[in-house]
TrEMBL record:
Residues 457-513 form the Cyclic nucleotide-binding domain. InterPro entries: cNMP-bd_dom (IPR000595), Ig-like_fold (IPR013783), Ig_E-set (IPR014756), IPT_dom (IPR002909), WD40/YVTN_repeat-like_dom_sf (IPR015943). The keyword 4Fe-4S does not apply. Residues 1-19 form the signal peptide. Coiled coil: none annotated. This is Cyclic nucleotide-binding domain-containing protein. Transmembrane segments: none annotated. Keywords: Signal. The lineage of its organism: Bacteria, Pseudomonadati, Gemmatimonadota, Longimicrobiia, Longimicrobiales. It holds the Pfam family TIG.
């Protein structure tokens, strides 16, 4: 075949092929690429797809740009330039991303990393221009509100007041915000604000809107009739359109109101609203915006039948003048009348449970027995059962004195056995024992060993048990009184002693213990209730709580006095299955270091002379103070041991009636021992001093 002449184009192609083969026609290796710079080297966050120029060296046609580890479609421009495209996802988040170039084999490799900065977006300041709906209805369920404005971003959050609310981003001009039922629970003005996060961002101006109250309506009352003279009444009000800030009104006066739900409110009517019979008008008010006053419903108040529960004094001394007779009970009203043998006496209303009547001097001029009743007028009303009140002549102050040579810490009297029971010290005859004493004869009738250093004692009101604190053993022991045999014993915490003991009324197996830390001031570590020796979980506070304790008629209320701190607080304590808790603290009704207290017929008496209406926490009068005291409400007298004399006081007038001298009394300092005096028999008193037990009888003590 004859040779042909190659065209110019063919010669050029052949040159390129030979160049690619290199010397000798062998394959060459790809170089390792290098990035010098990126154009641009910084982009705005969320700027979308962006063209990128990669400037460097040793790029080949097969070079690939990698962003965040992922190969991107790459355009080869020259050995010093490549082009690629950043995706919207690459620039969604602010920060730095790494850009690489990869050259394939043979040879080749990965370039140095070149940083590309994604600059954060400066969020705009949001502006709220409208809400839909423009107002909401109070009392409704959670609802969504559409917020219109400008400058909203995906991170925008809406606030109603100071509370952040679930927020859904719809667009730069619209958000959807959930308003909860708690925000809608009450009517009133509200504000909504939108907050955009940094960078930039900020808080919009608050946009006002209203939660409008519905018109309330009452459909019924829990009761349509109640009794005057009662404790505060909780009245259930049924209806519609009630809100958390709805208020029940009684005769146009707002009363404490508890929201139950949109159809039920509970209102508390005070004792002052229930002092007399009549008709009360009940309405409900919802506050603006919206709202209004419901239609009225009547509540009939009728007088109940009065009940006398206690006369703090059931006796008086003939010929000693008139006085004020205090009557405790229930269902008393403003026009209740106390009657003396059926005759009305001037009566002062002190509350639904208290009346004060003026008894004239001629009523008590001579010895007699009167019947005390209380009458309430119609509608309803009636007359209480009668309570006897005895007027006695004052007996002679001559006395018979007996002593028993036992150094005792404390004593009680058991009327069932007519015995005085004393706790004998370890240094005394009948050491570390409970000693039974016949007070009329002044002789020991029996004893039982109970343990180391018996101290305070308390008797159950049914005469079944006596409880004694064992100070040397840091324990409490129970004694069966009829058989005079020791029973269960339990320990107190960490060397504590029983500073005071009180058996719960009607609960012979339960005792309140005022736990004291010896050597501390104040000594109290709390009051604890023990049931058959097992402590209830909750104790009253220690340190400055009531370290002297007394029950009255109820086992659910315990009274205490702090005699070891200058506060001298008088405490009311609630008692239940959980234990003891303070419910009230009052100052100024009892005072003095080492003052002891005793309870009798609705009152607490202090050895400082204070006479306190316990439930009302009001001082009723003052007797002379002393080391020990006994009270006989049936006789209407109090007996105060003061030095070497027993002074007899009238419980009605608080005046002294007589003095009985008792020679030779030598009492311990009250910081070392609390002196106790008890009534025994019809005309006896017993008390302890340092070395012996005194048994005193006198006609002036007698019933």
């Amino acid at each position: 075949m004859s040779p042909r002449r190659l065209s110019g184009a063919a010669l050029a192609m052949l040159g390129l092929l030979l160049a690619a083969c290199g010397d000798g026609g062998t394959e060459s290796s790809n170089p390792i690429p290098a990035i010098v710079t990126l154009e641009p080297n910084s982009v705005q966050q969320r700027s979308g797809e962006t063209a990128l120029r990669v400037i460097g060296n040793d790029f080949v046609r097969q070079s690939v740009v990698r962003v965040k580890g992922t190969d991107r479609p790459t355009q080869f421009v020259s050995g010093t330039e490549l082009r690629a495209t950043l995706t919207a996802a690459d620039v969604e988040a602010a920060g730095q991303i790494q850009v690489l170039v990869f050259n394939p084999e043979p040879g080749g490799g990965v370039s140095n990393a070149a940083p590309l900065t994604v600059s954060p977006v400066q969020n705009p300041l949001p502006v709220v221009s409208a809400l839909a709906p423009a107002a909401l209805t109070a009392g409704g369920a959670s609802t969504d509100v559409t917020v219109t404005g400008t400058g909203f971003v995906a991170g925008s959050r809406a606030y109603v007041g100071n509370a952040v609310r679930p927020t859904t981003f719809v667009s730069a001009t619209q958000l959807r915000v959930q308003v909860s039922d708690t925000i809608l629970a009450t009517s009133g003005a509200r504000t909504l604000s939108v907050v955009n996060p940094q960078p930039g961002g900020g808080v919009s101006s608050p946009f006002p809107f209203e939660v409008r109250a519905p018109q309330p309506a009452i459909s019924s009352l829990g009761t349509t009739q109640t009794t005057a003279g009662r404790e505060p009444l909780t009245l259930t009000v049924n209806g519609t359109g009630f809100l958390a800030n709805s208020i029940v009104q009684v005769n146009g006066t707002a009363v404490p109101t508890t929201f139950v739900n949109g159809g039920v409110l509970n209102a508390t009517l005070s004792e002052g609203m229930l002092r007399a019979a009549g008709t009360l008008t009940i309405t409900v008010v919802n506050a603006a915006p919206g709202g209004g006053v419901s239609g009225p419903l009547p509540l009939q108040v009728v007088n109940g039948a009065p009940v006398i529960t206690i006369l703090p004094s059931r006796g008086a001394t003939a010929g000693r003048g008139g006085f004020t007779l205090y009557v405790h009970g229930t269902s008393f009203v403003e026009n209740s009348v106390v009657r003396w043998n059926g005759q009305s006496r001037p009566t002062q209303y002190l509350g639904g449970t208290r009346l004060a009547a003026t008894i004239a001097a001629e009523d008590v001029a001579g010895a007699r027995t009167a019947e005390i009743t209380v009458s309430n007028p119609a509608p309803g009303g009636g007359t209480s059962s009668g309570v006897s009140f005895t007027v006695r002549t004052l007996g002679s102050a001559a006395a018979v004195r007996r002593t028993v040579a036992i150094s005792a810490r404390d004593l009680v009297y058991d009327p069932g056995s007519d015995r005085v029971y004393a706790s004998a010290r370890s240094t005394s005859a009948y050491a570390n024992s409970i000693v039974a004493i016949d007070p009329s004869a002044g002789t020991v009738a029996g004893s039982v060993f109970v343990g180391s250093e018996p101290g305070r004692v308390a008797r159950s009101d049914d005469g079944q048990f006596l409880y004694v604190g064992l100070d040397g053993a840091s324990a409490i022991r129970r004694v069966d009184l009829p058989s005079l045999t020791p029973g269960i014993q339990w320990s107190l915490t960490g060397g504590q002693v029983a500073g005071d003991l009180e058996v719960l009324p009607g609960r012979p197996r339960s005792v309140a213990v005022s736990r004291h830390n010896r050597g501390y001031s104040p000594p109290l570590d709390g009051v604890t209730i023990y049931d058959d020796g097992v402590a209830r979980p909750q104790s009253s506070p220690g340190h400055t709580g009531g370290n002297r304790i007394e029950f009255l008629e109820s086992s659910s209320v315990l009274y205490g006095f702090n005699n070891a701190h200058t506060g001298f607080e008088f405490f009311t304590m609630g008692v239940d299955a959980a234990g003891v808790r303070h419910t009230n603290e009052t100052r100024g009704v009892i005072g003095g270091f080492y003052t002891d207290i005793l309870g009798e017929s609705g009152r607490i008496y202090g050895t400082d002379g204070s006479v306190v209406d316990a439930a009302r926490r009001v001082r009723m009068g003052t007797l002379g103070g002393g080391e020990a005291m006994a009270v006989d409400a049936g006789l209407g007298r109090a007996f105060v041991l003061s030095g070497s004399a027993i002074i007899v006081y009238d419980l009605n007038t608080f005046q002294s009636l007589a003095t009985v001298t008792v020679a030779g009394v030598s009492s311990d300092h009250p910081a070392l021992a609390v002196s106790r005096m008890v009534r025994w028999g019809d005309n006896g008193l017993a008390f302890v001093d340092t070395n012996q037990i005194y048994l005193i009888s006198s006609p002036v003590f007698g019933r």
